[in-house]
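so my prof wants the structure for this chain in the tokens format not the other one, which i didnt know existed until like an hour ago. anyway here's the sequence
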Amino acid sequence: MALVTPQGDSVQQEYAQSALDDEALKQHELPVTAVLGAGHGGLALAGYVAQAGATVHLWNRTLAPIQAVIALGGIRLDDTLVRPARVSASIAQVLDGAAVVVVAVPANNHRELARSCAPYLTDGQVILLAPGRTGGALEFRRELMQAGCTADVIVGETQTSPLASRMTGPGMTKILGVKSHVTVAALPASRTAELLERCLPLLPMLTPAASVLETSFGSMAAIMHPVITLLNASRIEDGMHSFRFYSEGITPAVVKMMLAVDAERVAIAAAYGIATPGLEDWLRAAFGQEEQDLARLLAAIPAYQEMPAPTGFRHRYLEEDVPAGLVPLAELGAVAGIPCPALDSLISQASVLNDCDYRAEGRNLAALGLDGLNPAAIRRVALQG
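here's what i got, hopefully its the right format
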């Protein structure tokens, strides 16, 4: 495995590529799978799917994460070395020959990634945002169209990440939990069966949702991450004492705020005809727990116990979950006439702390391609495309 520079590339983008048992892996019946993103989520997904026997192409925009995989000779997944067939920072290299494309970059990078993928996508490919957060498939498809992509591809999204994981070092990841139930939908919903036919052998926890509105309104990261982060802002800013995010970061006030934000999410979903479970019920179903209140539920989930708190505010818990989670929720709520004081306050607080305007930069109605539509028209877009 060696680092090379593509000849004739006007931007002289460097990439790394490996061919590890490529021919042998191609004989396996599982679809060739491109995983885009070698962060904590993408690295775990690539290892999980490769370990199941699929041919995996792993991409990352920057070289350092893939250099680490090359140096190790594969992905160190728990105590096992799992070998992707191809590791590259060239999007064209990784998309070539892939039947399934799993997008595992932070949701606030979906827009840029869609534009990068657009010239290289081919008819029949399935693009699965894992997860899409809120409105991911809508935004990704709009960006593909804006970039002039004419390939007949299926764009879909999961409601949450199929795995709970964390990186343990360069090129190394640990799967803390495999979720038993993860809803998925294509855009339009009429193509969800096609998506499942291709993806279910790779990710057996997938179950069909009615539409991408159901998966989007069921995204829970934005309900938990920003609330815990913002209400623990002084502890994070202090920097003197690290703490465990889901256990030590939970107080009665944090629980109260999470439940208020969650109630707004449920009300917004109902305005679009979606009956979505509350946060507590979702946690019980996803992790098989039976605790009766939110604080105890979070404390009882083994996959959450090792999660450290962020050390600053330029972290995905705000940088991703606010513009790609809270903003589209609040925007869709406003269209439906649902008051969202808790959601709005979190967006404002996060924008102030990070000196930006998340509502303008994030997944507003224009970014989702829904500007000027009422709830009934938005439902039709999700169902019919």
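also thought this was worth mentioning. The domain at 2-217 is CATH 3.40.50.720 (Rossmann fold).
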